[in-house]
Amino acid sequence: xxxxxxxxxxxxxxxxxxxxxxxxxxxxxxxxxxxxxxxxxxxxxxxxxxxxxxxxxxxxxxxxxxxxxxxxxxxxxxxxxxxxxxxxxxxxxxxxxxxxxxxxxxxxxxxxxxxxxxxxxxxxxxxxxxxxxxxxxxxxxxxxxxxxxxxxxxxxxxxxxxxxxxxxxxxxxxxxxxxxxxxxxxxxx
Length: 189
Fold this sequence. Notes:
It is built from 9 helices and no strands. The chain is mainly alpha-helical. The chain starts with a helix and ends in a 6-residue tail after the last helix. The chain has 2 domains: about 1-55, Orthogonal Bundle (Arc Repressor Mutant, subunit A), CATH 1.10.10; about 60-189, Orthogonal Bundle (Tetracycline Repressor, domain 2). The longest helix has 29 residues, at about 5-30.
């Protein structure tokens, strides 16, 4: 088979898979994780159910692929925020605010617990902890953050504290939680 033919087929498969995941995003946003069905995905994507089943064996497989793409996108967003110009403390605040905003819109329940068991989540959590730890170490070196506690411990403190954003009613409440979390990182007088 010619290479061009393979590239065309691969591009088509990728486009169909992305369309399925984009549709899944729309359906999750409209009705939540539990409301999404294979029939809805196929109909809204504009493909037959048989075609959908060629890509994904069941709704769980679709949702796992969707979740992996979501987590990868969030991790990319947080990493970009950490790499922006500015002070370590300012970049840390930006990362923590973005993370708290993500945590605020997490979907709860049994299905969400299932989705968060994947290796992609473990990788993302480790990577994010490393990003936050590096920012804290840089901030401690410049005197803007406390240096009496290891940065790895402070990174875990931040990430665990900000999971509380899931229960907050507004972005303003999220910002206050981030400020309280950052206060715990400030140098001790």
